[in-house]
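Progress report, Aim 2. The chain analyzed during this reporting quarter is listed below.
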Amino acid sequence: MSDRPTLTGLRRSVDARYRARTPRSHALHANAQRFLPGGDTRNGTYFQPYPSYLDYGHGTRVVDVDGNELLDFTFNSTSLIHGHAHPVVTRAIETQASRGTAWNAPNATLLQLAELLCARVPSLELVRFCNSGTEANMHALKAARAFTGRDRILKMDGAYHGTYEGVEWNLDGADPRSMPATGGLPRNARDNVLLTRFNDPEAAVNLVRAYCHDLAAVVVNPILTRPSLGLPADGYLQALRQVTREVGVLLVFDEVITLRVAAGGAQERFAVVPDLTAMAKIIGGGLPVGAFGGRADVMRVFADGEPPSIVHAGTFNGNPLTAAAGLAAMQLLTPEAFADLERRGRYLHQRLVAEAERFGVALDVVSAGSLVSLDLPSTVKAERSQAGAAAELMRLLHLELLTRGLKTSGLLAVSTVTTDTEIDRLTDTLFDVLDSFRQTIEAVAPTLLQPVSQPV
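Predicted structure tokens for the chain:
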């Protein structure tokens, strides 16, 4: 029998180590399947063979129900920019909770948060609040339709703007019409969605001009966040801004994730101001939140009471508990804090690139501020005979890192409390794991061992 390493053998050994470390999580997941379809209520937290159940977290660490401490570089999908249970934020939550969590009336704390956001984010003249990034994008696009009187939107292929049927569409080959990204979508919803590819300004400009009389908005992540970070090419966002302004189509930035890359988000970083902006994650201090805003004339469709005004209700919209947590978290984000986040993100990027070159592995490392993504390069994905094996190796990499005490994903985030020592631990452990996988990589995905030159 051959001693040649196999992917099946590696999968068995990695899974076995994970299972041995997490028996209580395994038991909880088995029980969860009795009450939750698939054993979970959030697709993004599930992975094979089963997810780790967490018990508590402080700072950069979380502890699972089996007592394993994990150094976190995900921070609840990048939303906890100050880490877990920051004392200033938790104190604000505790104080407000003792006074009431929600009531059927406005509150002054929300007004403070609104004022802070309008002062920082270039596009915000007026802002409204909701409870998730999905809702923020949904209401921003509804505002664009009400203001323009048009139905269609243009989005980028593969871009994620939440679980809202109006945006869950991707390209169907070369056809600018769309195919569903998930089940349960009404087929006729595709009639209102056009698609093109991110960083293809010519195609986007042509579509906007061709459909301008039917097009309400172009919605775009100013930095693509799925499946990994994609930085806008020089002139791309500017081209979108110019053509939409020329023909009277609204430009909507989805800054749910990217608001953290500068005090005013990616629109400040790239000096391109959209008409409307969707936000969430960091503005809630760890509690459910969403917000959307922009030009005053557009946002007044929520206020004037005359057609085409929009009814915008929500039991927990702008609740004082989220407002208190969000205000505390945002006030901690001083210019000095952003400068430090930028430095830490750059350090993580540099360490990953340097170690990949030393190890001799092809990994695509992209960063913007405190966000850093780690993915397979396009050359590896294009190698059909090895792409599946390479993707499975990446899954096993993250699972083995979890077994070694590191909580990671393809999109990494550093927080205001992350240290250089912790970044060093991540990079050192990651490449120790890859070294332990080397023989299997050589056997099933040798293209991974052809480094890709990239900027540091």
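The first helix runs from residue 7 to 21. Residues 345 and 370 are 4 Å apart (CA to CA). These observations will guide the mutagenesis work planned for the next reporting period.
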